[in-house]
Amino acid sequence: MIRELHEKLISGEITAVQLTEEYFANIAQKDEEVFAYLTLTKKSALEQAKKVDEKIASGEKIGIMEGIPGAIKDNICVKGTRTTAASKILDNYVAPYDATVIERLKESGAIFLGKTNMDEFAMGSSTEKSAYGPTRNPADPERVPGGSSGGSAAAVAADEAVWALGTDTGGSIRQPASFCGVVGLKPTYGRVSRYGAIAMASSLDQIGPITKTVEDAAIVLSVISGEDKFDSTSAQSPAKDYTNYLTGEAKGLRIGVGKDYLKDLGPEVKTSIEKVIETYKKLGAEVKEIELPYSKYALPVYYIIMPCEVSSNLARFDGIKYGMRAFDHKNTKLGFKPEDRTLIETYLDSRKYGFGEEVKKRIMLGTYALSSGYYDAYYLRAQKVRTLIKQDFERVFEDVDLILTPTAPSPAFKFGEKTTDPVQMYLEDIFTITANIAGVPAISVPAKDKVSVDGKELPIGFQLMAKWFDEENMLRAAHAYEISFRSDAENKIK
Ligand code: GLN
């Protein structure tokens, strides 16, 4: 898609301003229902587009992302733009700097349409936890788009953006991609700088692309990845053009499928994933049975490590340095005035009124697990199991190049269906969380066979995980699957 639009821009079939306006028209038409965006940046987007058109008119060469409009999840800082992480506590926060990924995208000439909705501070799997209300799934407005990057996935699916950025701590790029029928890629931990992404759990967070095609994901990843001196966990790896690895072939790749992975799935999801496996066999990949015995502990390990890091990262939101400063108005009845409150009261009121329930729950869980006396029993033990899970992957990746799983246990669910039982919501990430725990790259690709629920055809994704820093083979395999269903005319590899 990006490549085709790029060619149209070069040939003059369309201008960048026209393209940008077309996307704003789609937003005007659809976003009242979908609610993918929290903030639109129309003025700056059109200014950006105008510059691209001037460049084209003057005969200068343009890059592949130049003039291509996209959307940014609202927990990634864009200078001068409201950045809320979908939390009331940051309702009035305007980012004073650009995240590294934004800086790189700006250099590439990409256009930003706006900031997308999400679960508050990226905690959730449905966008129902956004302080501003939920996003709807374009495939069925009665259903959630997944989360936490639900706004980004819905924007791409509804043609309200060509590409989008999401963040993924336990599945937040891949699960919404699966629910909305688009591609979502979580890079290897360290592949993409986290500088300027509002931290949820720093040892798990990664920024990545959500797009319509695998090639588009490769294009965006090529722009945003690479070492960054502002993120000490970013890996020393030279920038690469990942599209070079899209050969259209999966021949010879060894793909591992977990022994019990398909066991608890609904029949239609199971059939859909089994057909994906058959397709890979037809493409010449070797499918092998694998075992990851410690993976079953990934979810409980995540729900210790993640809240611990959340409790520490979110300590900075205190109503003093930035964001909302709240005052408990009940106090006015007792004769208190806002200026009478103490520093501690200001902290307490701001956090009480600024954070939503889910966020507060996780802060409390994390604070408890880190407290002296419990630290060894919970946090330290979880870290040890994390090492065992990583070792599982090291062992399995001696035998296979990729691991294939469903992305989520089911297609998109209805609003409210999982809000009463948090464990049901947390189980959404059963297949995605291991990649964050181990730090390996993973991608969700729409399966050819949709799943019909209540007479509706709903998209479902499958997931490929690869060795640390082997985005190349992962993208190659994902792309080979995707194009295997296109007509011969479209099937030409560039
Ligand atoms: N759904 C998971 C959670 O609620 C993952 C979120 C994420 O990846 N940001 O924590």
* Largest sheet strand order: 1-3-2-4-6-5-10-13-9-7-8
How many domain regions? Answer: 1
Biggest sheet character: 11 strands, mixed
- At the third CATH level, what is the topology name? Amidase signature (AS) enzymes
Q: What class, by secondary structure content?
A: alpha/beta
Strand percent estimate: 5-15%
**How many beta-strand runs?**
13
Distance between the termini: 13 Å
Helix share bin: 25-40%
List low-pLDDT spans.
Answer: none
Shape: globular
Mean pLDDT: 94
Bound molecules: glutamine
Return the CATH class: Alpha Beta
The count of helical stretches stands at: 16
Q: What's the CATH superfamily, by name?
A: Amidase signature (AS) domain
What order do the SSEs take from the amino end to the carboxyl end, as H and E?
Answer: HHEHEHEHEHEEHEHEHHHHHEHHEEEEH
Rg value: 22 Å
* Architecture (CATH level 2) name: Alpha-Beta Complex
Architecture overview:
It is a single chain. With 494 residues, this protein is α/β, with parallel strands linked by helices. It has one domain: Alpha-Beta Complex (Amidase signature (AS) enzymes), CATH 3.90.1300. Helices cover 38% and strands 13% of the residues. The protein contains 16 helices and 13 strands. The strands form 2 sheets. An 11-stranded mixed beta sheet has the order 1-3-2-4-6-5-10-13-9-7-8, with helices on both faces. The chain has a two-stranded antiparallel ribbon with strand order 11-12. Strand 2 (69-73), helix 4 (100-108) and strand 3 form a beta-alpha-beta unit. Helix 9 packs across helix 12 and helix 9 packs across helix 13. The longest helix is centred in the C-terminal third of the chain and has 21 residues, at 376-396. It is globular and about 75 Å long. The protein starts with a helix and ends in an 11-residue tail after the last helix. The mean pLDDT is 94. It binds glutamine.
